[in-house]
# Entry
Amino acid sequence: LAEAIVYPSRLVVERFKAMEVELKEGESLTGFVTEQTDELVTLATREEIHRIPRDNLARMRPQNLSLMPEGALAAFGKGEIRDLLSYLESLSAP
# Structure
């Protein structure tokens, strides 16, 4: 868990890989595909949910980098990191 927080892009599990979606107008969006049909792709970005008609897609590419930024813990002290890890581990189902 600690390694995944400190180095989020070292190993990105397939189900957590983001997709870069390029629209025919040239706009590029990055997020998680939450639903796909023959007519529509639903992409959740940091800002909003996009429902994109397939005929508006130019390309979809999986990303190898995590959406979690590198260095997220840089401002934390060792005690704060321990507290964060303890909290996250407490969220696990018993």
Notes: Residues 78-90 form the longest helix (13 residues).
